[in-house]
Amino acid sequence: MNLLFNAFLLFGLGALLAIIPWRGGKAATLFGSGSAILGCLLGLLAAGQGLAAGAAETFFLPLSIPGGAFSLRLDGLSAFFLLPLFVVGLAGALYGGEYMKGGEKSRWSGLHWTWYNLLILSMALVVTAANGMLFLFAWECMSLTSFFLVITEHNLAEAVEAGWTYLLATHLGAAFLFAFFLSASALSGSLEFASFRMLGQLSIPAASGLFLLLLVGFGSKAGVFPFHVWLPDAHPAAPSHVSALMSGVMVKTAIYGLLRLFSFLPAAPPPWWGGLLMAIGIIGALFGIAMAALQRDVKRSLAYSTVENIGIILLALGFWMQCRATGHYLAAALALAGALIHLLNHSLFKSLLFMGAGSLMHGSGSRDLNRMGGLMRRMPVTGVLIVCGGLAISALPPFNGLIGEWFIYRALLESGTVLSGLAGFFPLVLIGLLALVGGMVLIVMTRIIGIALAGEPRSPAAAGAHEAGWPMWSGMAALALLCLAGGLMPVLLLQVAGRAATLLDPAAATLLAGNAMSPWWLGIMALLLFGCILAAYGFLRWRQGRGIVASSRTWGCGFAFPSSRMSYSAESYTELPQSAMFCNCLSPSTEDGRTIGFFPEAKRFSFEAPDPVLERLFKPFFRRAARVCSGFRGLQAGQLHVYLLYIFSATILLLFWVGQR
Amino acid sequence: MDNYNPANLLLLLVILFNFFLLGSSRLGACIRTVAIQGSILSLLPLFLHGFSGHSLFLAGGAFLLKGLAIPFLLLRAIRQVHIKREMEPLIGYVPTLLLGTLATAGAFIFSDRLPLIEAHRGSLFIPVGLATLATGFLMLITRRKAITQALGYLIFENGIFIFGMLLAEAMPLMVEAGVLLDLLVAVFVMGIVMHQINREFSSMNTGKLSSLRE
Question: Does A639 touch chain B (CB under 8 A)?
Fold first, then answer.
């Protein structure tokens, strides 16, 4: 606990020192990123101790706020979520020092470091708070600091608009959390988490109400399917290491909140809770990855991929709940392990990919895939690191993405083979759908790698791209190494996840601790497989080298003067899934550029894939709400007399009300 | 309750002055009426609580401020901006008077229903206080000129003062002094606002302020 407090102190200090130079510059970067790095290192030690120690550490300091107290608790679950926070925070601080240099954005780098330190601090508080008031306070701080980070480049209208969408979404979600904490404290008599155990005796309908409040409240932050609308706008607008922190860690704090508060609800939930989670999980996964395939903005594509991964995590969590409710403890343990491991993995490889995308932006000056191309040759280190991230996110060996998904597949298979009839059919269908998602991830990643890294430069800026500096790629390399380590030593991941599982489901934790399902061989197999592929590649390369080789430009297609405009564009790469697999509601709006006549003529082709949920559900809803509310604008007459009349009538009404009693 | 209590006579006078204020358009007369009303009210603590240091201070302070200082400031203000009458009130004088009558009647009916302590039951203080508050409100709502707005606040304060009388024993001296000081400051502010409105819009009409709406 002391280590954690020292880390908090460092973050606070860094936030203060970075704001003093205001306009940024070397001093702000030094203080801001330095204190973030030191704080994250201390925090990592604290998290490691928390994971290693079996017992929970608590700290209590009464505050004069009604219902509030500075009450912290560091147990397995908290430490499990602190781990990715400090890892990604550290990598981001390394990366950001270089990223914020140069250009318009360096003007706000001092302020940016303040918010960055405060964001890490508030996230650490969120996952260690043991009091409802403190939790909500930290939660709001987290939302606000991340809002300010999203609008770091507030000279761009796009960033400001994304920021507003995010602020609106996150506050609407927070309203549900307030409702939850108010009713929970009314039912249990206190806002201390320790007294929330009384919620375990609630009747099922009352508990279900609380569960739905939790789901909507945390879902809007986590980017759960219908509430994900802020995510694809906010992540691209933020600086890349901030997107990494937000996408890798901040959305996970919502999963933490869901798990932590769910653990206080009755231990035998009705099966539909799990069913609901699974349904929105798989819909979100399919929707997210389909949308990711349509975006030409790299970071937007990655943001949609976060929606997909959160969907997978929710699916596994829902499956865990359902299996536990129906008594299939082995499948439940596997699903829980899968969810937790995938969560940890996703925070590593998604941050790596966001930082990679940021480096590509930094090098080529654009987020548009169609303006990149050929960057592998110009930015080899970044390129290789992005390929590592791509392998990890596609669940390919020898990286860590495989391990989490492997557990989830095993859980589904386990119950699919044990159960009979219709009950056994659903898990098998889910396996199919999950495999479909996996295939689509591969398409999305080969698209990003193929269009951005391979081929020929598609713009002059891409042709003149430069490699990122060492602070940038060292942050990414650390994440990539961790991804590799996770893939090679899956037992380590399982042990870490087991610590968190102890608190959520002790039965599952004992099952996981047993050696029966230890995936130790997975890493070795992965290494062997990867070695074989490398060997085959080397062999082919060697044979090719001996023959006669004619080299030509990529996608030259035998033309005399090939140009990069002839090559596959980001849109054309996904035309197959788009025209053959997606339902109508997802299809992008295109302005067709087909030529029909005999002679070529000038044609335009434009392609846009706005979020269907935002466009068809939320925007019409809010527009209508605004229209209804604007009727009340008449009340604001601007006349002093009318306002006085309001006060007078309110007083009279109150007097009558008092007189009636 | 002793019906011959001189305090009750004074309170009935206060109600009559309320009606006069609602029905009159001459600003000078209104200011003087408010001054007389305030001076009458300043006598109340003496009748109610006897000649103690506390009540003497209250009476003296209220008389100096309500009876002399504030009316003097307001009279000077209307002399400076050369206005004598409130033109075109938002609601006419006769309807305002009717509303005032209704409000006064309502105040008497309502105060019967209030859960009061035995000593205050049947006393005129509560209904007169409520009626004066309502008069102040009506004045604020129906008149346009900044000066009549200030008068509305003064009448409003008089209503509060009548209420405060019942609590004068319990109310610390500092609170009373604070209320009176607030009032003086409010009049100063109003004077400044009046001056500013007059300069910006060449009129004392607070309705012009609506152009400041977003």
Answer: yes
Helix (H) or strand (E) holding A591: strand A589-591
Beta-strand relationship, A57-62 and A69-74: antiparallel
* Structural domain boundaries in chain B: 7-209
Q: Which residues of A touch B206 (CB under 8 A)?
A: 640-641
Which of the four pLDDT bands, split at 50, 70 and 90, describes residue B212?
Answer: low
| pLDDT for the residue B1 | 45
Q: How many Å apart are CA A265 and CA A187, to the nearest integer? A: 12
Helix axis angle for A298-326 and A251-262, nearest 10°, is 10
Looking at residues A42-53, what average pLDDT do you find? Answer: 90
Across the interface, of A636, A648, A656, the residue whose CB is closest to B137 is: A648
What percentage of chain B has pLDDT greater than the value 70?
A: 81
Domain boundaries, chain A: 268-544, 620-660
Cβ separation B210–A656 shorter than 8 A: no
ipTM field: 0.75
CA B208 to CA A638: how far, in whole Å? 9
Q: What is the mean pLDDT of residues B191-203?
A: 67
Q: Count the residues in chain B.
A: 214
Residue B144 to chain A, least CA–CA distance (Å)? 8
Question: Which of A630, A635, A636, A639 has the highest number of chain B CBs within 10 A, making it the mutation to test binding with B?
Answer: A639
Most confident of the ranges A221-230, A541-550, B80-89: A221-230
Q: Which of A66-80, A273-287, A424-438, B83-97 has the lowest mean pLDDT?
A: B83-97
Asked if A656 has any chain B CB less than 8 Å from its own CB, the reply is yes
Residue of B nearest to A645 (CA): B141
Judging contacts by C-beta atoms under 8 Å, the chain A residues touching residue B209 are 638-640
Structure tokens at A290: 């389909």
CB < 8 Å & 24+ apart, contacts of A434-437: A434/A282, A434/A285, A434/A312, A434/A315, A434/A405, A434/A408, A434/A409, A436/A286, A437/A285, A437/A286, A437/A289, A437/A308, A437/A311, A437/A312
DSSP A69-133: EEEEEE-HHHHHHHHHHHHHHHHHHHHHHHHTSSSGGGGGHHHHHHHHHHHHHHHHHHHHB-BHH
